[in-house]
Amino acid sequence: MDFSLTEEQQLIQDSFRGLLSRSCDLNVVRAAAERGDEGNSPFDATVWDALVELGMPCLLVAEEHGGAGLGMIETALVAQELGRAAAPIPFIGTAVMAPLAITDGDLLSAIAAGTTRIGVALQTSGTSRDVQSGGARLTGAPVAALDARDADHLIVEADGQLHLLSATGVGVQVTPTIQIDPLQMAARLHLDQTPSVPLQNVDLAWVRRAGRLALAAQSLGAAERVLEMAVAYALERKQFNRAIGSFKAVKHMCAEIAAAIQPCTAMLWYAAYAFDHLSAEEAELQSLLTKSHIDEVARFAVRTATEVHGGMGFADLPGVHFWYKRAGFNRAQLGSPEVLREQAAVLQGL
Amino acid sequence: MDLSDRKEHLEFRQEVRAFIAAHRHRVPKVSGQSYRMHPRPFAPDMVAWQTLLVENGLASRTVPTEYGGYGAEPDILKSRIIADEFFAAGVPMGLENQGVSMLVPTLLEHGTEQQKQDWVARTIRGEIFWCQGYSEPGAGSDLASLQTRAVDDGDDFIINGQKIWTSSAHIAQMIFCLVRTEPDAPKHKGISYLIFPMDLPGIEVRPLQTMTGHPSFNETFFTDVRVPKTALVGPRGAGWQVANSTLKHERGMLGNANSSQWRLNRIREMMGRHGPAGQKVSASPVHRNRFIELQARVQSLRAHEMRLVTGAARGQPPGLGDMVCKLLTCEVNYALDLFAIDLQGELGVEYDKYSGLDDDGIWQQLSMYDLGLIIGGGTAQIQKNIISERGLGMPREPRLTEVAGG
Fold first, then answer.
1. b/e per residue, B283-297, with b = 16+ CB within 10 A?
2. A248 — contact with chain B (CB < 8 Å)?
3. Is A321:A306 a contact under the CB 8 Å cutoff?
């Protein structure tokens, strides 16, 4: 047994972390959030270009289409870094779920080259309005389609199957709504008798599972980032003539976050390993357990890290709130913990 | 990342399985858990089982052969395979009492040749019981402030003082004990580590009643107890370092996630039973949700353990990942116990403390015992100090004198 990252995986993690710490600092995130709060797209083209150059959209695209043909472990590592940086770029729809759903070679090549963006609307109870397919036409209004803002194509779940459609075609309205997380590129869709192409022979559960794990990885990255911010602030901020990080009331909050986060890395690795190597049932169970657990840990981490910052945590300046919002968004996507736990119970025959 | 066994480990796993299949009929009737919660002398079948495991390299396997062990090279993956296969088969592991897990590594590292010859073999076979004389009424989390005195008297020390939380002291033949030999030295430098028999004149053991109703702990009093200086382990005044050096041997994790998984598996069975209303317990959405929440926590610890084992096998030093284990494992076990009691509804209040441990009363007992474990062996708050100070690099709380000056 060797439950550790390979040299290549370590290199991927290091290079994405390095790139994002250089190109996506707090100023970049803040500027993107300001765009988002004003109703504009938070998309940052400089960050996107740098990530494309490093191979971000290639991860899950097969090598014959110009991709890297990597697996879920590598994808989760990249997602974790994107979550840590709160990078204002499309990822989970465009670079995680779309490559698994699409078989068209040209479109896959465009994904890998970073020249197209694809929004994905899956149905998860409580988060989406049902879409019906009548023949090859879709009607419905999914609420928060991931990466749909300014996307070229959309992948929409209807009647247990995925459908591909042009985002700019007849009968499609993509309405960006102002959201709690201003760094997202999700949008509301209005489909009215929209022409679409069913994606045959695509395992919908598999696509959803990949999205779930990427969301969990992003939230774990967010939790790790806010812990670093909390510790740094507690070491710097002085009250009663000493760093507040020397007060047990404060440092125990940091210890609790660290303790909650620590096992999540291995849990995520195992779920990604299951995705790549184990049975569909085991992979499904692990993805349900992992996202539901990391959602809870991330909620605890972002809330507690905000409190470590005292009044400043509520203020805009330290920026903890960007990750607070990111964790909240991810939690609601593709199944909140309660929904996922019920699915896990059913899956195990409870 | 590759979770399959390499050839050597695959063969070892098969050997362990073959051993279990061949010797299953020799499994002791009463579990090690029971002995832990109700310390009492081992029944002959327990000693025989332990001896069998030691002889086959399935317990204390790295103890050198000249001291009665198996003399295997340390291989944490093999240790892990033993733990997992024994757990999967529902067969008790070798002893992990304080003699085996704390005293033996200490003697192997710091003991004299005579001490190793005298004690190691008999301890790992389960023939000698040890108790630990560390905590005192006035020295708990601040253990180094301990006041039990050992005064120099020629070839002997004369010991006076009191220890508390000495589990098994009423049945132990021997004690490993921290005493103050240099009262004028700084508190961490005046402590010595002694081993001596519990039947010496002047030692009195009184049971300490606990919330479980079982006196599994004791208070131990020393009045002019004369102990020869050959009882010293390591140099005089170095007892604090001697005691702490053995902590690196126990990474506080092996088999821990199995203890949580064991609880989870039993709860899974309970979920399938029929409740008072005739429905299966698992039909309740609230209970289903709570079960999966706990399952996810246990799974996170299982995966975490695999990562730590890999790190240890590669010789990486313990870090933050190891520091969180005690806190997390104790907390999840306690949460599992409470869930199991809640599942029993009104029946959950019944608690016959004299009944055997293998009935439903085990949850009532565990729900108290596991709270004790959150406190014992370094409280949850001490764990958080360790995590924040050593793991996250946060400053210690200033001492009172510093605060007064500030």
1. ebeebbbbbbbbbbb
2. yes
3. yes
What tens digit of pLDDT does each residue of A48-106 get? 999 999 999 999 999 999 999 999 999 999 999 999 999 999 999 999 999 999 999 99
DSSP-derived pairing of the beta strands B130-133 and B174-180: parallel
Entry field: residues in chain A: 350
Across the interface, of A245, A273, A338, the residue whose CB is closest to B289 is A338
Which positions in chain A touch B5 (Cβ < 8 Å)? 1
C-alpha distance from A322 to closest chain B C-alpha (Å): 23
Interfacial A residues in 54-93 facing B (CB < 8 Å): 73
Q: Rounded to whole angstroms, how far apart are CA atoms B163 and B182?
A: 18
Contact at CB, A234 and B394, closer than 8 angstroms: yes
Q: What element of type H or E holds B59?
A: none
Each residue of A174-195: b (16+ CB within 10 Å) or e? bebeebebbbbbbbbbebeebe
Q: pLDDT digit string (tens) for B273-324?
A: 877 677 888 889 999 999 999 999 999 999 999 999 999 889 888 899 999 9
- What percentage of chain B exceeds 70 in pLDDT? 94
Cα–Cα dist A300/A302, whole Å = 6
Nearest CA of chain B to the CA of A3: how many Å? 5
pTM: 0.94
Q: Kindly list the distances between the CA atom of residue A182 and the CA atoms of A30, A85, A176, A227, in Å, as whole numbers in the listed order.
A: 10, 14, 11, 21
Q: Which chain B residues are Cβ-neighbours of A342 within 8 angstroms?
A: 285, 288-289, 292
pLDDT at B35: 78
ipTM: 0.96
A246/B394 CB distance under 8 A? yes
Q: How many CA atoms lie within 13 A of A148 on its CB side?
A: 28
Please tell me the least confidently modeled range out of A27-31, B45-49, B139-143, B353-357.
Answer: B353-357
Q: CB-CB: which of B1, B320, B397 is closest to A6?
A: B1
Q: A252 in contact with B at a CB cutoff of 8 Å?
A: yes
pLDDT in tens, A281-321: 999 999 999 999 999 999 999 999 999 999 999 999 999 99
Checking phi first, is residue B153 left (phi over 0); if not, alpha (psi -120 to 50) or beta? beta
